Amino acid sequence: MPDGRPDLPLTYRILHEPRALFGLCVLGLMLMAAVLAPWLSPHDPLEQDLLSSFLPPSWQENGDPVFFLGTDNLGRDIASRLIYGARTALIVALIAATLAALLGTVLGMLAGFYGGKTDMLISRAVDIWMSFPAVLLSIVLVAVIGAGLHAVIIAIVIIDWTRFCRVIRAETMVQKERDYVSSAVTIGLTRVRILFQEVLPNLVPLLIVLLTLEMGIAIVVETILSFVGLSVASDTPTWGNL
Predict the structure, then answer these.
(1) Number of domains the chain contains
(2) How confident is the model at residue 11 (pLDDT cuts 50, 70, 90)?
(3) Coil, helix or strand for 95?
(4) What is the CATH classification number for the domain harbouring 154?
(5) Alpha helices per DSSP H over 115-195
(6) For a disulfide at 56, which of 47, 60, 194, 219, Cβ 3.0-4.6 Å?
(7) What is the DSSP letter of 202?
């Protein structure tokens, strides 16, 4: 029930919610690191120095102040590779999550709004697809498609559209029973216009939440695939290669 207080703008609520503000700051730092990597990184992330391999962080014993976070087995600066790795993570997160959201949202809206055979067909496809272990399936897909960033993005989209589809379907079924949908039907709007002009705007807040969660999942999947050697080239800085 409404309590009589006016709805506060979304920007105001974010800036006055500590957890949301913290998440926004972390995302901002990641974005800044990805965009400004050539200027922020102290060294070339691909430069090798075997005489300086396996150096500990600078604050530990035998650490070198030149290499703040130490070096890897080839003497490459870990801090620089960490900064450049944010680029790969954000590319995968933004592209894969957005494409998965588009596919899952459209299918979920169709299933929830039209019902019947359309709902049954899409829902059964989602149930079958979600019965497979996500990480194992992503490894198999990338192995079949071929290693590379494009393969990682395709695998994430193919697997994770089901998350959006199931949630959006349920919310669409709720929204189509609302009075504004009945009013739209009464004035003669087509189902397609009702679905995309009336129902879709009311799904946006839920989509934002799902999209942010999916970005985190996409980064984790890319990291796992990089770790097992199925993502980008081994010399390309990624968080999984670290």
Answers:
(1) 2
(2) low
(3) helix
(4) 1.10.3720.10
(5) 116-130, 134-145, 149-175, 179-186, 191-193
(6) 60
(7) G
